[in-house]
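Render this sequence as a predicted structure.
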Amino acid sequence: SKQPLFLTGTVVNQAGFYARFDEIVLLTAPVDTLLDRVAERGTNPFGKTEAERVRIRNDTAEVEPLLRRGASRVIDTRQPLPATVQQLADLAEPPT
Protein backbone atom coordinates (compact mmCIF):
# COMPACT_ATOMS: atom_id res chain seq x y z
CA SER A 1 0.00 0.00 0.00
CA LYS A 2 1.12 3.53 -0.65
CA GLN A 3 2.32 5.55 2.29
CA PRO A 4 1.62 9.28 2.31
CA LEU A 5 4.57 11.58 1.78
CA PHE A 6 4.44 15.29 2.53
CA LEU A 7 7.07 17.69 1.21
CA THR A 8 7.32 21.37 1.96
CA GLY A 9 9.19 24.26 0.43
CA THR A 10 9.48 26.19 -2.78
CA VAL A 11 12.09 26.07 -5.50
CA VAL A 12 12.26 27.65 -8.93
CA ASN A 13 11.77 24.37 -10.83
CA GLN A 14 9.10 22.78 -8.62
CA ALA A 15 6.37 22.76 -11.28
CA GLY A 16 8.43 20.22 -13.19
CA PHE A 17 7.79 17.72 -10.41
CA TYR A 18 4.04 18.29 -9.93
CA ALA A 19 3.05 15.32 -12.10
CA ARG A 20 4.73 13.00 -9.59
CA PHE A 21 2.31 13.98 -6.80
CA ASP A 22 -1.35 13.26 -6.19
CA GLU A 23 -1.96 16.70 -4.67
CA ILE A 24 -0.16 20.03 -4.65
CA VAL A 25 -1.39 21.93 -1.61
CA LEU A 26 -1.01 25.64 -0.96
CA LEU A 27 -1.20 26.54 2.72
CA THR A 28 -2.19 30.18 2.75
CA ALA A 29 -3.20 33.06 4.99
CA PRO A 30 -3.58 36.79 4.40
CA VAL A 31 -0.30 38.67 4.57
CA ASP A 32 -1.38 40.54 7.72
CA THR A 33 -1.92 37.17 9.43
CA LEU A 34 1.53 36.05 8.30
CA LEU A 35 3.08 39.24 9.65
CA ASP A 36 1.28 38.82 12.98
CA ARG A 37 2.55 35.25 13.24
CA VAL A 38 6.18 36.09 12.56
CA ALA A 39 5.99 39.02 14.99
CA GLU A 40 4.71 36.73 17.76
CA ARG A 41 6.95 33.72 17.27
CA GLY A 42 9.99 33.28 19.44
CA THR A 43 11.69 30.48 17.54
CA ASN A 44 13.00 32.50 14.58
CA PRO A 45 14.08 36.14 14.42
CA PHE A 46 13.19 36.61 10.73
CA GLY A 47 10.34 39.06 10.20
CA LYS A 48 11.02 41.30 13.16
CA THR A 49 12.57 44.24 11.28
CA GLU A 50 10.63 46.55 8.99
CA ALA A 51 12.85 45.59 6.03
CA GLU A 52 12.08 41.91 6.58
CA ARG A 53 8.36 42.66 6.91
CA VAL A 54 8.47 44.52 3.58
CA ARG A 55 10.23 41.50 2.06
CA ILE A 56 7.47 39.19 3.37
CA ARG A 57 4.82 41.45 1.82
CA ASN A 58 6.65 41.61 -1.51
CA ASP A 59 7.47 37.89 -1.63
CA THR A 60 3.88 36.98 -0.81
CA ALA A 61 2.52 39.28 -3.52
CA GLU A 62 4.94 37.89 -6.10
CA VAL A 63 5.09 34.19 -5.24
CA GLU A 64 1.68 33.22 -3.87
CA PRO A 65 -0.18 33.76 -7.17
CA LEU A 66 2.29 31.41 -8.87
CA LEU A 67 1.84 28.79 -6.16
CA ARG A 68 -1.94 29.18 -6.26
CA ARG A 69 -1.99 28.49 -10.03
CA GLY A 70 -0.11 25.22 -9.54
CA ALA A 71 -2.08 24.04 -6.51
CA SER A 72 -4.67 21.31 -6.71
CA ARG A 73 -5.89 22.31 -3.23
CA VAL A 74 -5.76 25.54 -1.24
CA ILE A 75 -6.05 25.41 2.55
CA ASP A 76 -6.68 28.61 4.49
CA THR A 77 -4.57 28.33 7.64
CA ARG A 78 -6.49 30.97 9.59
CA GLN A 79 -8.58 28.09 10.88
CA PRO A 80 -7.44 26.32 14.07
CA LEU A 81 -4.31 24.22 13.56
CA PRO A 82 -6.11 20.88 14.19
CA ALA A 83 -8.50 21.68 11.32
CA THR A 84 -5.60 22.35 8.95
CA VAL A 85 -3.90 19.13 10.03
CA GLN A 86 -7.15 17.21 9.52
CA GLN A 87 -7.54 18.56 5.99
CA LEU A 88 -4.03 17.36 5.16
CA ALA A 89 -4.67 13.99 6.80
CA ASP A 90 -7.88 13.61 4.79
CA LEU A 91 -5.91 14.14 1.58
CA ALA A 92 -3.51 11.38 2.62
CA GLU A 93 -6.31 8.84 3.12
CA PRO A 94 -6.99 6.41 0.29
CA PRO A 95 -10.25 7.10 -1.57
CA THR A 96 -13.25 5.18 -0.28
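Summary. The chain has three helices and two strands. The mean pLDDT is 93.
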